[in-house]
Amino acid sequence: MIRSPCVDVCQMNPERRLCAGCYRTLDEIARWSDMSDAERERVLAELPARRNATQSDRAPIEAR
User: How far, in Å, CA of 64 to CA of 55, rounded?
Assistant: First the structure.
């Protein structure tokens, strides 16, 4: 079984609708234990891009 990417920072970003800790959606978090390994791998593969997009939103305007 593929482990959850949860890092115990459960706070939803209201604009992106992603957890600020693991970058999953509420639906992905709720369904994680019922997902197949293939579904979990797909979600895990998307997390780095979600993290990068979220972090670029926080970058100072001068750096954009």
Answer: 11
Cα–Cα dist 29/60, whole Å = 30
Q: Give strand ranges (E) for 1-64.
A: 12-13, 18-19
Beta bridge partners of 19: 12
Model confidence pTM above 0.85: no
The pLDDT profile of the chain, 64 residues, written as one tens digit per residue, is: 899 999 999 999 898 999 999 999 999 999 999 999 999 999 999 999 999 988 876 655 555 4
**Residue 6 in contact with residue 23, Cβ under 8 Å?**
no
Nearest CA to 5 out of 29, 30, 26 is that of 29
Beta carbons within 10 angstroms of residue 56's beta carbon: 10
